[in-house]
Amino acid sequence: MLLDTYGRIATDLRVSLTDRCNLRCTYCMPEEGLQWLAKPDLLTDDEIVRLIRIAVTDLGVTEVRFTGGEPLLRPGLVGIVERCAALEPRPRMSLTTNGIGLKRTAAALRAAGLDRVNVSLDTLRPEVFKTLTRRDRHHDVLDGMAAARDAGLTPVKVNAVLMPGLNEDEAPDLLAWAMEEGYELRFIEQMPLDAQHGWKRDGMITAGDILESLRTRFTLTPEGDGERGSAPAERWVVDGGPHTVGVIASVTRPFCRACDRTRLTADGQIRTCLFATEETDLRAALRADAPSPASDAAVAELWKKAMWGKKAGSGLDDPSFLQPDRPMSAIGG
Ligand code: SAM
Ligand code: SF4
Predict the structure, then answer these.
(1) Ligand 2 center to residue 292 CA distance, Å?
(2) Which of 53, 89, 116, 163 could serve as 94's disulfide partner, Cβ 3.0–4.6 Å?
(3) Which atom from ligand 1 is nearest to the alpha carbon of 159?
(4) Which residue spans traverse the membrane (predicted)?
């Protein structure tokens, strides 16, 4: 299994399928000028499926989340999902997407074995969407979500990031809308993972701000015993139930102690954390032709060694914190 020196076991694998995207969310990507990974550097579909197979059959991974960049831009996505669904034991599989193109692919993804989707939507106002993502695609996202729900990719979870001066006042409206549509809403605190390195702790909207804003319209009570385990989202029951809302306070209330994640980038690097500054190159091991490409057992050993070196926390609170070189879009959120 993927154990680290703090006794954590990684069972949740995030697989980035591409660093490319059809939106340019301000908290993630610059308007232009970001260098894409070169095609030969990307893992092939076969290499991705092989690594997921090793993770699932040899390393105890039970949960696979496909992400990016925008994973729906990966031409082989449906085939990758289908091949992973045939693995023994079968992992639970979900997809984090901006929803553009989901209308077209939701049914095929469901048929291939995908269990669920998380769709990112930060605003109900098309003009704010255009400012936030620098593209006029609000309607496509709403259509994509509805198609996912209709295809049975449920529960459809909605990820929202609030940005000062843009959509910071929208938390209650987003929650009312999500409850009406039957989606599960989660707010994510903005993290320092933008390509422009423009994040400022002072200006960010915190979990505290979000809860305060929601409480102007709803009564929130902690779900269950209030313990979130390894789940990053703290969940709240809305107005006595049955709906809930989640808040992922990665910055102000980090959940590193219970982290169960391991990450694979589109170019075959293992990252132990979103904020890791070191990576382990599995692609080189897969492709090395001298003396011969690594066996499954050798790849598994490299992966275990990488996770053994996982740091205690993100380091966000450390004065020496350095933002990783890769932006969120190239790590896989
Ligand atoms: N393109 C897909 C999408 O937007 O859902 C998948 C990749 S995206 C990097 C995954 C998630 O990360 C999205 O929900 C997005 O809102 C979130 N995200 C991106 N940059 C972020 C940041 N700097 N802080 C917090 N969340 C961020
Ligand atoms: Fe693209 Fe997702 Fe990043 Fe937005 S958050 S730019 S949709 S990768």
Answers:
(1) 37
(2) 116
(3) 14
(4) none
- Kindly indicate the confidence band of residue 283, based on its pLDDT and cuts at 50, 70 and 90: very high
Q: How far is CA 247 from CA 250, 278, 318, in A?
A: 9, 28, 23
| Whether residue 119 has its Cβ less than 6 Å from ligand 2 | no
Domains and CATH numbers, the chain: 12-331 (3.20.20.70)
pLDDT at 79 (0 to 100): 98
Q: Ligand nearest 132 Cα, by number?
A: 2
Output the CA 313–ligand 1 centroid distance in Å. 20
171-218 tens-digit pLDDT: 999 999 999 999 999 999 999 888 778 788 888 999 999 999 999 999
Q: Determine if ligand 2 sits within 6 Å of the CB of residue 314.
A: no
CA of 219 to the centre of ligand 2 (A): 31
User: Is the model's pLDDT at 245 over the cut of 90?
Assistant: yes
Mean pLDDT computed over 74-79: 97
